[in-house]
Specification:
Strand content: 25-35%
CATH architecture of the largest domain: Roll
Structural class: alpha+beta
CATH class of the largest domain: Mainly Beta
Helix content: 40-55%
Mean pLDDT: 84
Number of domains: 2
Length: 116
């Protein structure tokens, strides 16, 4: 009986030998890491899009270039935001929504919640 099992084990199909290779484990791990990175990037992009959609007048923002200012006007049809960057001279700059890096007050509130 034991010889019959040994003979069956030796006659395994060729494709089974693929799973015995150490490279198979490496490829499987690479695929899992790749899937994990893509999912986290999608979540990050979704959060950014939600943040950009929720920008409203009075929000304090930071642009990708590092400019800090307060939103004065949100133009939905042009996908633009008018930002006041200097209180003394009343200087305003128009930005597209994609140029906004973050809403400063929201980030500060989130940090305060984490510390509490």
């Amino acid at each position: 009986m034991t010889t019959a099992l040994a003979i069956l084990a030796q006659q395994a199909p060729q494709w089974v030998n693929i799973f015995r290779s150490p490279l198979t484990l490496v490829f499987v791990l690479i695929i899992f890491m790749w899937i994990f990175m893509i999912n986290s990037k999608r979540k990050q992009d979704r959060r950014r899009q939600d943040m950009l959609k929720q920008i409203k007048k009075g929000d304090r923002i930071q642009t990708i270039g590092g400019i800090l200012g307060t939103v004065v006007e949100v133009r939905e049809q042009d996908d633009e935001v008018v930002v006041k960057v200097d209180e003394s001279s009343n200087a305003k700059i128009r930005f597209i929504r994609g140029a906004i890096s973050r809403v400063v007050e929201q980030a500060e509130r989130e940090r305060a919640e984490v510390k509490s």
